[in-house]
Amino acid sequence: MDRIEVLKDWLIQDPSDNFVQHALAMEYVKRGLDQEARKLLESLLERDSHYVGSYYHLAKILERGGEKNLAIRCYEDGMREAKQAGDQHAWQELRSALDELNE
Predict the structure, then answer these.
(1) Considering the entire predicted model, what is its pTM?
(2) φ and ψ at 33, to 5 degrees?
(3) Angle formed by the axes of helices 53-64 and 18-30, to 10°?
(4) Which of 62, 70, 84, 91 is the most buried (most CB within 10 A)?
(5) pLDDT tens, 26-75?
(6) In the prediction, which pLDDT does 1 show?
(7) Rounded distance between C-alpha atoms, residue 89 and residue 59, angstroms
(8) Range of 9's domain?
């Protein structure tokens, strides 16, 4: 069984497991399946807006899809959440990606 199938099985067992949902989205990204990854990341962030690590990856998917304004909003939302969580590393990573997008 490949990694995607294993992660899907785990997600069926616990649909609210943010880590597994994020991991499955990253597997989709690795395979170039951005739309599947996007759905998972959007769903995850709707359920738990504090899952800071997903903002960067969702924004990158939006960038690749030519949705610059949505990507900017996603980076900004992630920066706000990272700041509230006191996660300076995540905030800086999001800030750098946003600055790069706006160049």
Answers:
(1) 0.94
(2) -100, 65
(3) 30
(4) 62
(5) 999 999 999 999 999 999 999 999 999 999 999 999 999 999 999 999 99
(6) 64
(7) 17
(8) 3-101
* Residue indicated by tokens 């990341």: 41
Alpha carbon distance 24, 32 (integer Å): 13
The total number of structural domains in the chain stands at 1
DSSP line for the chain: --HHHHHHHHHHH-TT-HHHHHHHHHHHHHTT-HHHHHHHHHHHHHH-TT-THHHHHHHHHHHHTT-HHHHHHHHHHHHHHHHHHT-HHHHHHHHHHHHHHT-
Nearest to 7 by CA among 29, 32, 26, 31: 26
- The domain that holds 16 is classified in CATH as 1.25.40.10
The letter for the amino acid at 70 is: L
Cβ atoms 18, 44 nearer than 8 A: yes
Tell me the two tokens of residue 82. 């990272």
Residue 61: CA atoms inside 13 Å, Cβ hemisphere, count? 23
